């Protein structure tokens, strides 16, 4: 199942990078597979607690982003962030324990920022393919962890 998960991640990256849109089926599969893998590697109570905390963090973040786009940028919310990005955030939230989710989420955002700054002049579109960049980051982390068994990402 992990290999399918990796395939989904690399496909999300290529679609988002090339077209700035990702098929909903891919994102929903990403959410479902991530949730299943995490659920299989933990206890039900810890799974439910983790995704509750993760979604609470995401809700807070999305509300802050909404307020910033509405009052500071004076733009509609979905002109600042795509629905695919929000679905990708959801996929991360159901896929990892809270501490690992926060580390992976923040690290993937920093990776995305760095990658965008480096590649900005060579990109066809001037928007950030956030879900795609986060997907390639997670792909690399999971692949390296699979190859070298560095850490169990599902322990608390």
Account of the protein in words:
This protein is an all-alpha fold and 156 residues long. The protein has one domain. The protein is built from seven helices and no strands. Helix 3 runs antiparallel to helix 5. The longest helix has 29 residues. The protein is globular. The chain starts with a helix and ends in an 8-residue tail after the last helix.
Reading the helices and strands in chain order gives: HHHHHHH
Q: Bin the strand percentage.
A: under 5%
Task: Kindly report the average pLDDT value.
Answer: 96
Instruction: Indicate the radius of gyration in whole angstroms.
Output: 16 Å
Q: What spatial form do the alpha-carbon principal axes imply?
A: globular
Please tally the helical runs, counting DSSP H or I stretches of 4 or more residues: 7
Q: Which sheet architecture does the biggest sheet show?
A: none
| Whole-number total of structural domains | 1
Low-confidence stretches: none
Helix content: over 70%
Structural class computed from helices and strand pairing: mainly alpha
DSSP, total strands = 0
Tell me the span between the first and last alpha carbons: 22 Å
Write the layout of secondary structure elements.
Elements: H1 2-19, H2 24-40, H3 44-72, H4 77-80, H5 83-95, H6 98-119, H7 130-148
In short:
The protein has 156 residues and is mainly alpha-helical. It is 78% helix and 0% strand.
């Amino acid at each position: 199942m992990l290999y399918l998960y990796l395939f989904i991640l690399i496909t999300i990256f290529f679609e988002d990078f090339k077209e700035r849109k990702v098929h909903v089926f891919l994102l929903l599969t990403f959410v479902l597979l991530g949730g299943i893998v995490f659920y299989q590697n933990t206890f039900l109570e810890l799974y439910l607690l983790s995704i509750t905390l993760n979604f609470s963090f995401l809700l807070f973040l999305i509300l802050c982003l909404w307020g910033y786009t509405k009052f500071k940028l004076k733009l509609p919310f979905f002109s600042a962030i795509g629905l695919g990005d929000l679905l990708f955030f959801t996929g991360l939230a159901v896929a990892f324990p809270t501490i690992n989710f926060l580390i992976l989420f923040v690290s993937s955002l920093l990776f995305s920022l760095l990658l965008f700054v480096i590649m900005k002049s060579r990109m066809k579109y001037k928007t950030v393919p956030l879900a795609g960049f986060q997907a390639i980051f997670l792909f690399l982390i999971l692949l390296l962890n699979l190859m070298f068994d560095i850490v169990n990402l599902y322990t608390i």
